[in-house]
């Protein structure tokens, strides 16, 4: 199992969810709760850098939402300076009077202090300095994971990508089982934030049975991410095995876990508690898609968009794309079974008007995302699925022609060089 994870307490990624909520006008109903949570965190953890980052009247990202008090800021900053002075003294004394392990421990406290008060630049610098002094591989991995969390909090996708690769290289040299699984969750969340759902799905679904990374999200939130990623990217067989019939998924989704409630009772994604309220809509989404109950699927998709996609900091950025792709997937699933489908019949199956379905299908057909044509005169949709065998044959012919051309050019070059020698 390896040693227990270190440096996992800070930063608190739930803060980034509250910040996202306050920056999103459509979530105004949740602004008071998010404001209260942020101001409470700033006070309890003496987060002067975070307070300035959020509320400063000149460049604070939430200056219109959080009141700036210069005196309060100076009070917080004074407390931070005193705490930092004590930590610097501890490092100095450890360096002079104690051994290397005591120095590393003191440096770790300083790095965690910067992470706690959410001072990004100084936290990253302190973690890098700690990294150079840390002798054990497990602790080095924990430091890089802490760096990843700080970069996630600030939505630094480029930084997260580099740090994830760095952590993977360390783990490949001999990381233990627990840290391998923790990195799997971190990587899955990063891929999700970059709209790489197909790559994120297997990592997130595999993480469900071994999840210990509660420092990045709650277990129920991980289930949400895994189910959404799997639903949009897995083929039908894997979707059934890894999502529909998954014991970990069934333990969380609404009605089957006995926790179904109305959609209106949902509070906020990203909560630290294991709250599965509203997950019945997610269960309805996956089941209706698999069972081809498309009218229920569209209703559930709208609920999931409102309850989860719009409110979560990771999912909201790709909300419109996700909803569009899920509609395309449902259309493609229905059309796969028929060569000709009545336009009115298909509209009734999805619970929409013929005109709306016509417009929506027209968004996918020109880009070849749906292999069909619409015949409005006869009121039908004709599928024109590509013939895989014919396509493979054409690919072989094309590649064979390219190979013969290259061989001819090579033969000519060889003959020319031979004649030159002669």
UniProtKB/TrEMBL annotation:
InterPro entries: PCI_dom (IPR000717), Rpn7/CSN1 (IPR019585), Rpn7_N (IPR045135), RPN7_PSMD6_C (IPR049549), WH_DNA-bd_sf (IPR036390). Pfam families: PCI, RPN7, RPN7_PSMD6_C. One of its GO terms (cellular component) is proteasome regulatory particle, lid subcomplex. Keywords: Proteasome. SMART domains: PINT. The keyword Endoplasmic reticulum does not apply. One of its GO terms (biological process) is proteasome-mediated ubiquitin-dependent protein catabolic process. The keyword Cytoplasm does not apply. Residues 196-388 form the PCI domain. Transmembrane segments: none annotated. PANTHER family: 26S PROTEASOME NON-ATPASE REGULATORY SUBUNIT 6, 26S PROTESOME SUBUNIT 6. Component of the 19S cap proteasome complex which acts as a regulatory subunit of the 26S proteasome, involved in the ATP-dependent degradation of ubiquitinated proteins. The 26S proteasome is composed of a core protease, known as the 20S proteasome, capped at one or both ends by the 19S regulatory complex (RC). The RC is composed of at least 18 different subunits in two subcomplexes, the base and the lid, which form the portions proximal and distal to the 20S proteolytic core, respectively. Component of the lid subcomplex of the 19S RC. This is PCI domain-containing protein. It comes from Tuber aestivum (summer truffle).
